[in-house]
Amino acid sequence: VENEDGLEALRALAHDNRLDLLAARREVELLGQALGVVRRWRLIGSIDLGIEREREADGSKLTGP
Questions:
Q1: For residues 39 and 47, what is the distance between their CA atoms, to the nearest angstrom?
Q2: pTM recorded for the entire structure
């Protein structure tokens, strides 16, 4: 029975540390975070910020959106 417990613990350890499963779990975690960002900002849409500056012929400067 003791040997079987050790074997089962070893199987559980191998399962918990499989690189493909770890990568898949991480991908799911990152996709969940990305979805949270999308949901948080979905109502704002696209925001454009900017400023323009022009120099007139008389040397004066005009600054504005």
A1: 16
A2: 0.45
55 token code pair: 């120099």
Report residue 1's pLDDT band, with 50, 70 and 90 as the boundaries: low
How many residues are present in the chain? 65
Task: Domain of residue 48: give its range.
Answer: 2-64
Q: How many domains does the chain have?
A: 1
State how far the alpha carbon of 18 is from the alpha carbons of 1, 24, 25, 42, 63, in Å: 26, 10, 11, 36, 59
* CB contact at 8 A, 53 and 62: yes
Between strands 52-55 and 61-64, the pairing is antiparallel
Instruction: Measure the CA–CA gap between 45 and 38, rounded to whole angstroms.
Output: 10
